Amino acid sequence: AIQIEDDRTGVTIPTLRRALADNLYYVLGKPPDGATLNDYYLALAYTVRDRLMQRWMASTHTHRLPTIKQVIYLSAEYLPGPHLGNNLMNLGLYETVQQAVAESGLDLATLLACEEEPGLGNGGLGRLAACFMDSLATLEIPAIGYGIRYEFGIFDQEIREGWQAEITDKWLQSGNPWEIARPEDAVFVKLGGHTEASTDETGCYQVRWIPHQTVKGIPYDTPIPGYRVNTVNTLRLWKAEAPESFDLSVFNHGDYYGAVDQKVISENLTKVLYPNDEPIQGKQLRLKQQYFFVSCALQDLIRTHLAQGGRLERFHEKFAVQLNDTHPAIAIPELMRLLVDDHHVPWDLAWTITQQTFAYTNHTLLPEALEVWSLDLLGQLLPRHLEIIMEINRRFLEDVRLKFPDNGEKMGQLSLIADQPFRSVRMAYLASVGSHAINGVAALHSQLLQKTVLRGFYDLWPEKFLNITNGVTPRRWMLLSNPRLAQLITRRIGDRWIIHLQDLRDLEPLAEDPEFRAAWRSVKQANKQALAQRILERTGIQVNVESLFDVQVKRIHEYKRQHLNVLHIITLYNRLKQNPSLDLVPRTFIFAGKAAPGYVQAKLIIRLITAVGEVINRDPAVGDRLKVVFLPDYNVTNGQPIYPAADLSEQISTAGKEASGTGNMKFALNGALTIGTLDGANIEIREAVGSENFFHFGHKVEELSQLRSQGYDPRRYCDHSPELNRAIHRLESGFFAQGNRDLFRPLVQSLLNDDPYFLMADYLSYLNCQEQVSQAFLNEATWIRRSILNTARMGEFSSDRSIREYAHQVWQVQSVPINLQP
Ligand code: 26V
């Protein structure tokens, strides 16, 4: 019998071609000859989305069953990167679609390049959420990711005359084929106003919140398919709109334009992502955003749970809710409010449910990054939540007093309310009391968390604390972004590594095989060649692919110390100027990363990198021995070709400052060697790949605190190191700024006077370590051997491993295979 494939589900080449033409014509309303490349991209995206639909609906249906526990990831940020390539890969359709598209006279790579990535995050934290969503689906764990559908994500970066310029990110401009709006699932969120307490007919104390304003939350769903499984989870992002009834009521009073104003105010709520690398204290809109998406999410959960016949007493048996940092921590008083005020659950029961529901992940120890909200602001915007927080605090401090009867100091230390510099809620404390589990994101970070920021809570409840080291998804960060290496690996050890990254161990013996080493080297060279091409296109700089590609890509921040890297570059340049025939190991220094728009010093570091590049790249005495490149607009899309091309990964943060880092994992997984401090996950990476395959330098955390307590004097290091002195002098002299001695003065002054991130203290150690790197690079065979061993030993840094740990140690959830035949 002839099998006729459904045009929406079939996966043969003729069917895919027909589906593409169909979607172009009937969904986009374009004839083949009048279609743009973007139209073809959209048609292809719809064709792929169609092929996800059955699995998505089956997953959603199954995951709603009351007996199935579901993970709820609450995150203000997601950085999933472009969906099309990833979805093709996870569905197992990449090659077939490539061919189908080719037979229709198109090029898949060109269509993939049309997709605007959702830049709904700042950096590591948002990207981690996306890796976790991929792993949850791949492990067939029922999950929903809730977040905010920002109209403008993280700004696009351009470099103009060496400076960063910010351009609004219009990711929705040409349409988003991956999302489905669900206006039928809209919820209402109250803001402002006041509360009224009363006693009802039965003598029960009742609080009513009379809001000043109500906004409507509209969910937009994006499918998140697992790798070669039927599970398709949902990323549900909320957009704020004005409730129609509201305009109408004003309209009835004749104030039509006032109603339109209200609409604009409501829609502003989800307009723009805040760059969270900049202090956001007192930003009312930011608190509104946090509360808005959290309230939408919890209302959504309660509604579906009740609709399925679930009981609120069992809420925590149905949902495990993870707080991605404190951004969603207002969920704790919000769930209390929904349970106590709206559903009349007694306080104590509601508190048990709440604590059993939530778990909290901390992502930073930097004091300036720890969220606090002033009581003023909270009281204005969320009067009922402030009351609930005060009651949580009162009961909590009462427990503390019973445990430590004659220790009044303890209560002040642990209070959720800080008095200085103004009365405010410490959100990390709120998250800690309202959760049953608290984790850091790398071993060192978790230890420091227990010893510093959350010490008092660790003393109270050590059993709540755990470490779960971050990971990255090998699907995007190897299979998709490094197809050459993925193919080489699969040819030798099979393809189970894609879902079982520890299998990369099987590469270890091949590190001794000359033939395999040669193939490994060819792959790296091809990847370097491809990156060199992009560098030329984007910056006009010609780089030497035989040189060592030395790469630092991440947000620009003083604690990440991009300027330490620059001091090394200046030192090499000084050596070359002093001895023009110096036999220097050629290097290409590649930087990329965004600076928060208001972070003046970070923007100056970008200017420093471009300025040093302008001088060095043009100096004929340097030739192609040194090149300095700043690649603009670092994001997921632009990051993908960078990691596979790196020889050396720069992970040089001040010890104790980088909670984990995840870029460090992407580089090592793709065969780069690391130069790094003993910070964040670097420590665990070094242990995994072997200290002989990792270049570490710099002061350790304890050594730095010793330096600090001894009275740290950065100038001393300058006086004792002629090379450091010369490098600093070059900066001061205006040499890299066309004689302008003022340009880099703020950077130099900061280094000489405070140097809060200890660049001066680590300079010498860094320089010596870089010398070892250069010597190692000269021996190609052993370098490649070490590169292979890095990849072979990175298996534990898959986000699949992280998610398994959360599933067993925090969430108590199981895999649920999805059956497509009902
Ligand atoms: C926020 C702020 C705000 C005030 C100014 C300084 C500053 C610096 C950093 C941050 C980010 C806080 C949260 C965050 O994104 N943490 C990152 O989380 C990643 C995933 O766990 C982790 O790999 C990074 O090390 C960590 O910085």
Class from helix and strand fractions: alpha/beta
Q: Separation of termini? A: 25 Å
- Total strand segments: 23
Low-confidence stretches: none
**Whole-number mean pLDDT:** 96
Biggest sheet, open or closed, and with what strands and sense? 10 strands, mixed
The general outline is globular
Number of continuous helical runs: 33
- Please indicate the percent range of residues in DSSP E strands (runs of 2 or more): 5-15%
The percent of residues in helical segments reads 40-55%
- Rg over CA atoms, rounded to whole Å, is 28 Å
Which compounds are bound in this model? ligand 26V
Provide a concise account of the structure shown:
With 822 residues, the protein is α/β, with parallel strands linked by helices. It has 33 helices and 23 strands. Strands 1, 2, 5, 6, 9, 10, 11, 12, 16 and 17 form a 10-stranded mixed sheet that branches. A 6-stranded parallel sheet has the order 20-19-18-21-22-23, with helices on both faces. Strands 13-15-14 form a 3-stranded antiparallel sheet.
Secondary-structure map:
Blueprint: H1 13-27, H2 37-64, E1 70-74, H3 83-91, H4 94-103, H5 108-112, H6 124-138, E2 143-148, E3 156-160, E4 163-167, E5 180-181, E6 187-191, E7 194-199, E8 205-210, E9 213-225, E10 232-241, H7 244-252, H8 256-268, H9 284-307, H10 315-318, E11 319-324, H11 331-342, H12 347-357, E12 358-361, E13 372-374, H13 375-381, H14 383-403, H15 408-414, E14 417-418, E15 424-426, H16 427-433, E16 437-440, H17 443-451, H18 455-460, E17 465-467, H19 474-480, H20 483-493, H21 514-539, E18 548-553, H22 562-578, E19 587-592, H23 600-618, E20 626-630, H24 636-639, E21 648-651, H25 663-669, E22 673-676, H26 682-689, E23 694-696, H27 701-709, H28 714-720, H29 722-732, H30 745-753, H31 759-778, H32 780-792, H33 799-811
Helix pairs in contact: 1-2, 1-4, 2-3, 3-19, 6-33, 7-8, 9-11, 11-12, 11-14, 13-14, 21-32, 22-23, 22-29, 22-31, 28-29
The structure holds ligand 26V.
